[in-house]
Write a structure and sequence with these properties.
497 residues; alpha+beta; Rossmann fold; 2 domains; 6-stranded antiparallel beta sheet; 33% helix; glycosyltransferase; PurF; Amidophosphoribosyltransferase; purine biosynthesis
Amino acid sequence: MCGLVGVVSSRDVGVCLYDSLTVLQHRGQDAAGIMTCDNGKLNLRKNNGLVKDVFHSRHMRRLTGQMGIGHVRYPTAGGSSPALAQPFYVNSPYGLSLAHNGNLTNSKELSRDLFKEDLRHINTDSDSEVLLNIFAHELQRRNKMKPLPEDIFAAVAGVHNRCRGGFVAVVMLSGYGIVGFRDRNGIRPLIFGSKVVEGRTEYMIASESVALDSQGFTIERDVAPGEAVYIDVDGNLHTQVCTDPGEHTPCIFEQVYFARPDSLIDSISVYKARLRMGEKLADKLLKLRPDHDIDVVIPIPDTSRTSALEMANSLGIKYREGFVKNRYIGRTFIMPGQAQRKKSVKQKLNAIDLEFRGKNVLLVDDSIVRGTTCKQIIQMARDAGANKVYFASAAPAIRFPNVYGIDMPSASELIAFGKTEKEVEELIGADWLIYQDLDDLISSAAEGNPGIKQFECSVFNGEYITGDVDEVYLKRLENIRSDAAKKSKKKGGGKKT
């Protein structure tokens, strides 16, 4: 999962892009990058690390220009070399730079076609570079000295004709403008907004609405499935749906985990969706155990707080903060390796003994992925003196890999794969485990936008909506992206970049 932003303004955009990336930091903590365009001259800074560590004053002074794009990354494909930080750039045509979120499910075939047929060379194993070169080739086919909006939309249509999967991108055309586009099913999120400064309209395109809010932009709307939004250097907005859109099927894991609670994703308030998740999970708990003996509800910070609070309210039980979080440790399930995840849990959380001692506690988390975190946290609760430790997941059991840009590539690394809820309960060491029902999760999100009839729920039900994912593909993905594969690749040096 990654975060991206693009801005077209009448003023230097470097600081605006930096500030926007800081509020999108939760979407990627591996690398960050900004590229600006100053009267045709490109300025780039990117590297591994958090936004605050990648950009210093000396870098910001060089990031001049009235338009630019930014990116925060954590790797789902490829490695962790600084060369894989985005934006990526190609010189022809015009000078194009790209920031991308998602995953192309036919990246291997596209890479082959780019080399053999389009005569374009790929320097890394990143599907983002593949996407950039596909767009560049399709735009070059228009053979124009100056690209017009119809040329850009035709290039995006060419991308849709060739690329499959879940993806969004912002592409900057040096000296001309910025285009943002979204996959035909709208799996990954993209939104744009505007503000008027000294009589001129400025625009921002971003992964989440919080980026717009933080910089004073007013939300226009979400980019529609299959749509492209182009803002030229003069601040003119052009939009067009560039392919026959499929059923709008956004990723429901945005609502569960990735998006900030103060964001709107496809017009759905993430905060309210998570409140409804807590309410519905409380209803299920009362049906299963009306005579429960829970004394206190404690969230596992931070993402589960909203659901846990509403769960406690619905159950009529005290809500307490039982864990103190070290805010300088990143999200654990996206840590690059099991050993690092185990170490990070202990660095990340510390229990407040008085909230646990002698009590029957219900711990609430947003989801259970590999099980590393919740197993250790349950033990922490017991060590702090808890009498019984129950565990509630605001999401259903995750049993299948994700192929659309979330780092869950291998089913064998998912604790619930091939197991019953009772078996997972025993593995994590809980006295009782309760999962959200998928129908309840879907209704929690759908209530925020009745226009969305279905969600991308493949990690829960194994249904891949692009129709091109089979066992052969999943096995190939596991061989490339599992923890074992990444460890082997790192040891051997991986692909040279």
